[in-house]
Amino acid sequence: LASLLKDLLSPSQYIPNARIKPDTTGTVEFAIRLPKDVLVAVDSFFPVSQLEKIKDADELKDKKLSADARRKLASAIDTKASSINELYIDPPKTAPFGVVYLPTESLFFEACNYRDPKTKEPLIHTLYREYNINILGPTTLSVFLQTLHWGYESVQISQKSKKIYDDLQNLKFNFVNHMKLIEEIYRNANLTMKKIDEAGKSGRSITNVLANIEEPDTIEINPETNPKNLKVLK
C-alpha cells in the first residue's frame, strides 16, 4: 500500500500513520488528503490464514468447508470495516467514507464475489451500506484515487459555478432595479423639464405684457374715442 501510494500520489497528498480522532489512541495506516484538507482513511487488511483455509478447502473439493471458510473471511472483513468506521470516519474532518485495502487480487476477488447466504446481497454492498466502507484491491485503488480527486475538484468547480450563477442572478436583480430607478428619474426629469418649459413660456408672456405697458404721461387718449366721453385729467 505504501509503495502504491508513493507511485500514485505526491508526498503532500497523503499522511502515513495518521491520527484522525484526538480522543483515540489508534492511527490509520494512511490518510489521503483531498482539497480543503479533507481526509480519507485507508487501512490495509490481509488475513493470510483465512485465505489458506479457503485454498485448502478448495483443494479438498469440500463445498461445506469452502463455504464456511469464505463465511469466516467475510466476517473478518466485516469486523475490519466496522473498526475503520468507528475509529477513522469523522466528518467534516474526513470524508463520510473510508477504505479497506486488500493487497492481493485473489483476496479482493473473494471479497467481491461473496454474497450473504440469506439475503444474497454482495459483501461490498453490505459494507458500504452499513459502514460507508469501500473495498479496494491493487488495481482498483489507483482508479479510485484518480476518481476521488477528480470528483472533489468537480465539486469545487460546481460550487464556484453556483457562486458565479448566484452572483449573476443578484447582478441581474440589481440591474433591473437600477433601470427602474433610471426610468423613474427620466420620467420625473421629463415632467420637470415640461414644467420648466411651461414656466418659461408663462414668464415670456408676462415679460411681453410688461414690455407693452407705457408710462402714464406718454399715453394719449382721444376724448372722442373715450367710451364714456370722460374728461381726461393731465
Written account of the structure:
The protein is α/β, with parallel strands linked by helices and 234 residues long. Helices cover 59% and strands 11% of the residues. It has a 5-stranded mixed β-sheet. α3 (63-88) runs parallel beside α5. It is rod-shaped, with a radius of gyration of 45 Å.
Write the layout of secondary structure elements.
Layout: H1 2-8, E1 14-18, E2 28-33, E3 39-44, H2 48-60, H3 63-88, E4 98-101, H4 105-113, H5 123-131, E5 133-136, H6 138-212
Parallel strand pairs: 3-4, 4-5
Antiparallel strand pairs: 1-2, 2-3
Helix pairs in contact: 2-3, 3-5
What is the number of helices?
6
Give unreliable regions as ranges.
230-234
Nearest-integer average pLDDT:
77
Query: How many β-strand stretches?
Result: 5
Strands of the biggest beta sheet: in what spatial order? 1-2-3-4-5
Structural class by helix and strand composition: alpha/beta
Tell me the series of helices and strands, N- to C-terminal: HEEEHHEHHEH
